[in-house]
């Protein structure tokens, strides 16, 4: 199955070149013995039908399945005893709520594949914390004083926007504490507008987004907690020069929020702390999105900083079902520079000084681990506070859902 993945994502080739540490070393410690052990369990799984060990996400070794196998096989019981009986394993909430990334690592040699869908819906404009009518948004003069030569009220305003993302997330444990990953994504942005004359138009832009990749390094692995550093980058694979003929009749570039990427390489470091109790777990994550340099359209999108805390509560004694609650602070700065193709006096979405904002978001989620080891994860978020620079569409709600499986 790894050959199939290599065909799809050549970047993964480098993952496969890294030798699996566990198979190079002797049986000096339990974790060093995992290579042959997993092989032994794999053989038994094939023979004994429904126990598919390959489904097990490393971060959640399913000991109940192991115990079933062990009932008929002393050798496997022996093997099972070597596995860590940590409170951190065997539970659905070893993954974070669906919107979060970089929250867990995998064991050396283990793969995880995840499909994630996310959407965000924005309806209506606001300036600062004040909601505006469509007419007020059209009449907004912007960041320069009224009466300045060449500055008029807008010819059109966005009235709502839907952003959708489809992502494939592939992770591979390089060692027991270092996991590499890549996240190709497809974006689909749709925006409805109203012109000053009362007519409406809709634009759509879709295509590959920026390619995110990196490595997770678990720098602390305690009995019931852990600390994971995320060294994440994004490559400028999303198009920032796509054009549409819809508003004017001749091709013109999409305004900033409709574009598919940043046009720059971004450093996106993060750090995550996880702590587990018998019935609950909690996590803290701080993350940055720091675009580097200036793109070939002469601008750089804003920096972004997120701080989030979440609580997961297990709802069943098998620890397969959990409810999550999350709170997130998000700070985003305005852009640096400006694309000369865009005229910020025509519409607010063409103004690089109307991109920043501060948000306080709440998230509500559920996660469920299926019998075969796959995991479903859903989360809704909505802002309870948003303070936007200039005039911008406000965010109403966001939704993320994913299915992941480790093998
Ligand atoms: Cu994973």
Task: Detail the topology: elements first, then pairings.
Blueprint: H1 2-8, H2 13-17, H3 21-24, H4 34-47, H5 63-71, H6 74-82, E1 111-128, E2 130-132, H7 134-139, E3 156-173, E4 178-183, E5 185-195, E6 200-208, E7 211-221, E8 225-235, E9 243-244, E10 252-253, E11 265-267, E12 270-276, E13 280-292, E14 299-300, E15 304-314, E16 321-332, E17 336-337, E18 357-369, E19 375-406
Antiparallel strand pairs: 1-2, 1-3, 1-19, 3-4, 3-5, 4-7, 5-6, 7-8, 8-11, 8-12, 9-10, 11-13, 12-13, 13-15, 14-17, 15-16, 16-18, 18-19
Helix pairs in contact: 5-6
The chain binds copper (II) ion.
Describe the structure.
The protein is mainly β. The protein folds into 2 domains: 2-82, no CATH class; 92-406, Beta Barrel (Lipocalin), CATH 2.40.128. Helix content is 13%, strand content 46%. The protein contains 7 helices and 19 strands. The protein has helices spanning 2-8, 13-17, 21-24, 34-47, 63-71, 74-82, 134-139, and strands spanning 111-128, 130-132, 156-173, 178-183, 185-195, 200-208, 211-221, 225-235, 243-244, 252-253, 265-267, 270-276, 280-292, 299-300, 304-314, 321-332, 336-337, 357-369, 375-406. The strands form 3 sheets. It has a 15-stranded antiparallel β-sheet that branches. A two-stranded antiparallel ribbon has the order 9-10. Strands 14-17 form a two-stranded antiparallel sheet. The radius of gyration is 24 Å and the shape is elongated. Residues 104, 106, 112, 171 line the site of copper (II) ion (CU).
